[in-house]
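Ligand: succinic acid. Inputs:
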Amino acid sequence: MGSLQPISFLGDYIDGRFIVPDRADGEFKDISPSDLKDEIMVLEYRYDHVHLATKAAKRAFLPWARLPQEKRFEYLRRLKEVYLTHQDQMAEVIARETGKPLWEAMTEAKAMVNKIDITLDFSMKLVQDERVENALPGIDGFIRHRPRGVMAVLGPFNFPGHLPNGHIIPALATGNTIVFKPSELTPAIGQLMAQMFEKAEFPKGVFNLVQGIAETGKRLVADEDVDGILFTGSYETGLKIKSTTLDHHWKLLALEMGGKNATIVWKDADLNKAIYESTIGAFWSAGQRCSGTSRIILHKDIAQKFIDKFYDTAKKLSIGHWKTQSFMGPLINADAVEKYLRFQEIAQREGTERLMRGKALDVDGYSGYYVTPSICMVNEFRPESVYQKSEIFGPNVAIYQTDDFDEAMKINDSTGFGLVCSIFSKDKALYEEARLRARVGIVNWNRTTNGASSRLPFGGLGKSGNDRPTAHYAVQYCTTPLASLEDPHPFDAAKSQMPGLAYEPLK
Ligand code: NAD
Ligand code: SIN
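Predicted complex:
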């Protein structure tokens, strides 16, 4: 493991080189939430770098799109080799910036490596050229998928490498070029990614990086040269992006937003499995996953047994610095801690029963944003309750009880979000019913809500997304289907007479 020296700020990566702003519009600091003494990087940003980057990406677009697919794949496979040799460094930067334990950050770094083979060898089949024989009588048709152009990728802090990478790799494979703006809370992994694209010797302008704050993101999505916006972040920001781009009818918007996911545990469930998986769902990454389990709906007959064991398991979770083998690290910043504590107060004011109180925590002498898990019992389901419908993005879970599956479905659908719903039951018919009725993009059976597969579509409905699932399906939104009728036959006057069209062939 490398030493924890500050990382030098290299600037924005535009048109194949790093440029430090010579006249900055502002600066910000990247500080580890695990240890506030660990100042990782000080960055400067300059707004007009946004347009420099989109122009570079636009210039690079046609040459990159013109390359035979196999040639683009060669670059991406080279990137995979570079990622592989830097996997430990990637994991360390992610752990340091987000505070997630190194073992967990390593799963993120590995997912970034694996995304390349999954895209090239598995997902690209969704956009392969297709010949349609006799699309019209005697004429074959073709369906081909054309890249869209310059893709702006905006990333969240919680998976600062894997989630932007999940947009970037499919976009590049299908022939688009990229301007990536990482979260201002996790800029160092973005810089490292740019260094790796440089090492993999991508053509200039194919991948560009611009560092900055929310205003930088706003300028990027509003830029006239951007053809598509591949966003992962909160519902509130997604909505702002939508309104910023209202006049830009040509822009693709792929919005991956928040969640308030429910797990339903029915009376015939394998309780050990349900408790174990729900613990992972609720508290992994300190609850900072869009796919986290924020609500558990228990069948009344097994509720007390579930709650007792779930409580004990949550109480014993280890919380610590990213270098330790802890289950949970800190929240990302002081605002996140304030929000986490405030929502527990809101829950109380709204009449929920506090089963476990979440508190700010000192860990092994580190000053960081550590908190303990919390559990609230909701005795009255109220869809208008602020606590019951808001994404908290911390290790809090609300517990409901019912013996009516229709009510469980109603609770599931009550928040406006619609990302994941899990159901634990031996009765497959209940799962099939949930698949039909739950207004979400993912329904899991006997498996927690988080820890998605890159080989499946990933996305949500309502406030969770705009029906453009990422992961396996990202290659589809990165392209537009192009239809062609191809007629290789010479002109045949006998076949070409329409009523009223007396065409005399040239002599
Ligand atoms: P965020 O919305 O605060 O920020 C995401 C990105 O948007 C950042 O790069 C930020 O700088 C940029 N941004 C902020 N304001 C902007 C604006 N007006 N215009 C353009 N860009 C702007 O999100 P976050 O706090 O980093 O991440 C946590 C959120 O992300 C949670 O809500 C979580 O559920 C969600 N998330 C969703 C998924 C998913 O796949 N659905 C996955 C992970 C996280
Ligand atoms: C996320 O929840 O933020 C990513 C999806 C996952 O859990 O793998």
